[in-house]
Amino acid sequence: MLPLLSLLAVLAVGTAGPTRDLLVVWNRDRSASSAELAAVRASAAARLAALGLARGPSLADAAHLTEPARVRDLPYDPALAWRVTASDGAAAARALTALSADPAVRYAEPIVPRGPCALDHPPDDPLFLDHRQWGLANFGDSPGNPGVAGADIHALAAWARAVGANDLTLAI
């Protein structure tokens, strides 16, 4: 599942609410013919329509996965990893329950877009709080690492200015 989770961000681009969007990966034999793939797609599309879900792009479409070597290394077919959208959060929850029990579905999970974090307080990382991560914020008083106050990358000021963007395509 790790490759699926690491590539999930590619499908998570957008502004839809966190509980309306789902990622659904359908099962398929990787050696199946193109006719069998078309049958799986048609069956999956009918199942989504029955659940009131609108199909969005596949991972293959969104990530432009056209190189056979890149696709071959995935444990699932990226052409069958779809972003789907429900009419509201309750419909998404019902669909998620139904899809999770469906043997034709390899994996289903909500897509939860990340958002900016409020930095009205410093991160709660113990190494940051006790000033051992002096490269991020050097106060000149790190235990065992006496340094020069301000000799750092000014992470606090950078985090106060920006913490990312939801329109950024990211894959880890």
Describe this structure in words.
- By secondary structure, the protein is an alpha+beta fold.
- Helix content is 35%, strand content 13%.
- The chain contains seven helices and four strands, in the order H-E-H-E-H-H-E-H-E-H-H.
- Strands 2-3-1-4 form a four-stranded antiparallel beta sheet.
- It is elongated and about 65 Å long.
- It starts with a helix and ends in an 11-residue tail after the last helix.
- Mean pLDDT is 76; it is low at 1-18.
Helix and strand topology:
Layout: H1 2-11, E1 21-26, H2 34-50, E2 54-58, H3 59-63, H4 68-72, E3 81-85, H5 89-100, E4 105-110, H6 126-129, H7 155-161
Antiparallel strand pairs: 1-3, 1-4, 2-3
Features of the shown structure:
disordered N terminus, 172 residues, 4 strands, 4-stranded antiparallel sheet, alpha+beta, single chain
What is the mean predicted local confidence, pLDDT?
Answer: 76
pLDDT below 50 for ≥5 consecutive residues: which ranges? 1-18
- Give the strand order, joined by hyphens, for the main sheet: 2-3-1-4
Listing every helix as H and every strand as E from the N terminus to the C terminus, the arrangement reads HEHEHHEHEHH
Number of helices: 7
The helix/strand class is: alpha+beta
Q: Per DSSP, what share of the residues sits in E-state strands of 2 or more residues? A: 5-15%
- State Rg: 21 Å
